[in-house]
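fyi for ur records
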Amino acid sequence: MEIYVVKSGDTVNKIADDYGAAPEAVIYANQLSAPYLLMIGQALLIPVGEESNEQTLARVNGYAYPYISDWTLRETLPYLTELSVFSYGFTTEGQLIPPAIDDAFMIGQAYGFGVLPILTLTPFGEDGKFNNYLIHSVVQSEEASAHLTEELVKTVQQKEYAGVDIDFEYILAEDRDAFTAFVWRIAEAMRGIGKQTSIALAPKQSADQKGLLYEGKDYRGLGEAVDYALLMTYEWGYTYGPPMAVAPVFQVRKVVDYAITEIPREKIRLGIPNYGYDWPLPFEKGVTKAKTIGNVEAVQIAASHGAQIFYDEKSQAPFFHYEEAGVSHEVWFEDVRSMRAKFDLIKEYGLNGAGYWQIMRFFRANWLLLDSRFEIVKR
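which gave:
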């Protein structure tokens, strides 16, 4: 696979001819739509050459809601080791709450592609947001914690899940040790039935980092408990924050530098965002709200407004500006260059692999590039 950045005067046919590739292959790999407009600065994946014999083994998981389209799921599963079904909740008494939509088809599809389906556990309140009171109620209660663990074991066995992923955020500092003990309890229970346990970790850059996202997470203790740990290395640029890259590589690197001092490299997966944000300008804190967009959609927006795409070398991320109905916009997203930068980190640090939040929008060029760089482990 080659990456080409569009210049003035380029066309699909010209680029394909220069590389000795079929135009249809370039169109397919990059999900281009007729009339195949290209924007200056747009990064294209060019499928040429032979597959490398120096691929690194990697495990890859992708989070998905049960309302994912069957087409998107089937197109993505060949590139995954695990499908993390998002998500199961619970009550303060430890009663497990299944997704509103039946997840059986996801489990069946996963196994059909040699992929392990994973039950994702999240402490969502009635408002659909992470609820630290709910976390506190369960991890500080022997009865509730034991009951939830029993429920997980029963559900994993009945539905034939391959394990549990624990995705808890905003854990109170006072619940740090209790949460670690809770994760150990679930991990031991899963090991007892031959299943795996993983955990999603807020992107800490130091042991004493302040903030509600970080103080309740004991990287070392949690890393010892689980089989795999996903670093949630995204959301620097987020819905209510100022315009910036979602996963700037220089920030991601700081998280990995700290994580490997606490958790064995072979247990760590790098979190990768499969989305971008579109901010209306000017940004006003507490008022401005960015719109979540897909990476293919971002390029389509640029094309529809004739916007040149730029690439920030420090963040290793693409961005552009456009105007619509008198309102200026700034867009940051992911392309094959920014994905390659993240894949390079996985190789450089010798990590276990990658975890995608999330796979609801299909980004073919990413998966083709991933497949060319890694040998994806199947069950």
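The first strand starts at residue 2 and ends at 5. thats all i got for now
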